[in-house]
């Protein structure tokens, strides 16, 4: 197996990767807390510089490469594998530590897609995967998903939560040109084998945090928030904490998980507030009546959240998820309101 | 010394971050209520556009990974930020902001690019 050495701040960290395994995944699997965010080629956070050895690039057009200096030996650890069985030595500028003892170490799992297409809206699909072994993850984390014969790896947040489970639920938005997404929308994929690497991501929720929580999600960014709400409700977190959830979509026809959100809010009517914001078209009265327990507003989700939360932003933990411009807008809202960055959690996918 | 005029400060909002041209390259004017700082346009972390950042009059925040710096303290890193900001020498005369552009300021990771 190819031997890898990652140097950081005068320290060398050695591990082995399987044949064809991405250097980032091999390193994370060995228990190293290597720098990454999206783990799938778009953000550029797992940049390293090659010192010795040869690499093969899996996605030469990865958007995250925009941040690399040409001809410097810079590469993305999530998109490179050692050439043949040769050793590779590389350097990262960020400090590298061992994963924290209480973190769930990422690893590989095999799974199969377990049902025919289940559409939540015209362009959002629920996909459940049965794994060959139980996995543990934190609410808010994601998995990198690969399908044989479909190029590329995509990150999807778990929607469900259990301390240990062999079944994971995801939501997937149709993205024209997106390899895994296009494939899933292309027909009945029940029974198809997939491979997953994870859990990944740092925007996680644990009840020990003991703060009020604010969630601002756009579109399928609600996935990880559902997992957070599931865990928080299961553990009666809202008995003594407040939760404010803002879920933004364009029109009522683009909304999903409303029944599930209603169920959550009805369990904690005094402390858990759930608002769905429509940016392009408001909900009519019949729609509102059908989904009791949820507030409906018009406008961009970060604006709706900003107005509703104006004097209540301090001391809480904020979770942001969704399309990058929506996350960016929410970050600006919170930073301008002087919320400490330590209390703002999101994983960058671009 | 190579001073160049970059902005009429009456046109800049307080607590704003504005990218302006300074001859051979662009700089960022970080405008507080009483003073201006002039810095390179990209974040020392991962080269994000700092013009997209948020400035509250004291702390500048890059909205990409929430690195923060104290502008009155000369760009000292705060919180998770690991690298101080570089600052251009600047002065205001008759309401006009001038920057000393004798040398373009670059962060370590940008330097090789320029070789």
Assign the structural class of chain B, choosing from mainly alpha, mainly beta, alpha/beta, alpha+beta, or little secondary structure. mainly beta
What does the radius of gyration of chain A come to?
A: 21 Å
Which chain pair has the greatest contact?
Answer: A-B, 17 and 16 residues
Subunit organisation of the chains: heterodimer
> Are there runs of chain B of 5+ residues with pLDDT below 50, and where?
none
Textual characterization of the structure:
The complex is a heterodimer of chains A (350) and B (115). Chain A is an alpha/beta fold and 350 residues long. Chain A is built from seven helices and 22 strands. In chain A, the strands form five sheets. In chain A, strands 10, 11, 12, 13, 14, 15 and 16 form a seven-stranded antiparallel sheet that branches. In chain A, β11 (118-121) and β12 form a beta hairpin. The longest helix of chain A is centred in the middle third of the chain and has 13 residues, at 222-234. Chain A is globular and about 65 Å long. Chain B has 115 residues and is mostly beta strands. Chain B has one helix and ten strands; from the N terminus they run ββββββββββα. The two termini of chain B are 23 Å apart. Chains A and B meet through α7 of A and α1 of B.
Topology:
The complex is a heterodimer of chains A (350) and B (115).
Chain A: E1 3-8, E2 11-16, H1 23-29, E3 32-33, E4 47-52, E5 55-57, E6 74-76, E7 80-82, E8 88-91, E9 97-98, E10 107-113, E11 118-121, E12 124-135, E13 142-147, E14 150-157, E15 165-173, H2 179-185, E16 193-200, E17 213-218, H3 222-234, E18 243-249, H4 258-267, E19 272-278, H5 285-290, E20 295-298, H6 301-309, E21 317-321, H7 324-336, E22 344-345
Chain B: E1 3-8, E2 16-21, E3 26-31, E4 36-39, E5 54-55, E6 59-61, E7 68-70, E8 76-78, E9 90-93, E10 96-100, H1 108-114
Antiparallel strand pairs in B: 1-10, 2-3, 3-4, 5-6, 6-7, 7-8, 9-10
